[in-house]
Amino acid sequence: MANLKFLLAGTFFGFILIKAEVISWFRIQEMFRFQSFHMYGIIGSAIIVGMISLLIIKKYKIKTFSGDEIKIAPKEFTKGNVIGGLLFGLGWAMTGACPGPLYALIGSGLPIVIVTLLSAVFGTYVYGLLKDKLPH
Amino acid sequence: MKILTQPWPWYVAGPLIGMMVPLLLLLGNKAFGISSTLRHLCAACIPTKAKFFDYDWKKEKWNLIFALGMILGGFIAGYIFKNPNPVALSENAVRDLNNLGIQDYSGLIPLDVFNFSALLTLRGFILIIFGGFMVGFGTRYAGGCTSGHAIMGLSNLQAPSLVATCCFFAGGVIMTWFILPYIMHL
């Protein structure tokens, strides 16, 4: 039951993704063609709100609801940021979805997206097998 | 009711998405990110000896439960409170997508391209299965996706996330402008 809050948070997030239309293949195409401000407005304002909230959390040393100190692991620099990033970008423009939207799209009643999700799981699996042979 | 079925403008939806960052931290010290769920699914479901999947995925159960919630949220927003109108694309986008051969604008994705019978065509296979593979392979190799790098990472002023986000974008632009036209006309 401790995880119920994450179920609710996920539901909230899935709901927003659909209403924001950021899960739409059409909207992703429009973004990569620079034909609408919609996606840029969403990603940009999300980052600004996230940034300000982290500044507030750090400045006032705000704790979690259960009283723990908030810790965020830093991201590591690897060659994967570039190579993996480019590969994901190619896939993003093909499927019109990053991992989060895949879940929300399946829920919205599009079973074909289950195939895309399973392919993405398989892609992650292949990465796991090849990890030590890839440049990092 | 209208507010539940209509799409929301960017200045409402964007800040709400940004609020996920502090929300997950306050709820349980969790860093916002979705692509890790793909790794947990591998660790949980695929028998393998690979070191990359040899960890206690149950400790990351919250992430999978969060993803389950996203399916539920997608159902509520996209099925129960479905927007009856097509996505309000810009005229230029519709013109370009028409040129790519897309005719069905009724759903959130072009249903004439993404459907089960299309899986048997080369175009459908590339866009759905190979595209999905690239999403899973690329995000894990990059160490995150749009949520983990672009939103969480940039919010936390992480330089690697800036590099990754620029590369996500470059990859998308390359695909859209130089490769997709060929795939669409296969």
Task: Label this structure with key terms.
A: about 140 residues, 6 helices, B: about 190 residues
**Largest inter-chain interface?**
A-B, 114 and 127 residues
What share of the residues of chain B does DSSP label as strand, in percent?
Answer: under 5%
Helices and strands of chain A, in order, run as HHHHHH
Helix content of chain B: 55-70%
Distance between the termini of chain A: 39 Å
Largest sheet of chain A: none
Proportion of residues in β-strands of chain A = under 5%
Residue ranges of chain A: pLDDT <50 for 5 or more in a row?
A: none
Average residue pLDDT of chain A: 96
The oligomerization state is heterodimer
- The tally of strands of chain B reads 0
**In total, how many beta strands of chain A?**
0
Rg of chain B, Cα atoms, Å: 19 Å
Count of individual helical segments of chain A: 6
Report what the structure shows.
The complex is a heterodimer of chains A (136) and B (186). The radius of gyration of chain A is 18 Å and the shape is globular. With 136 residues, chain A is mainly alpha-helical. Helices cover 67% and strands 0% of the residues of chain A. The relative contact order of chain A is 0.10. Chain B is mostly helical and 186 residues long. The longest helix of chain B is centred in the C-terminal third of the chain and has 26 residues, at 159-184. Chain B is globular and about 45 Å long. Classes of the chains: A mainly alpha (136), B mainly alpha (186).
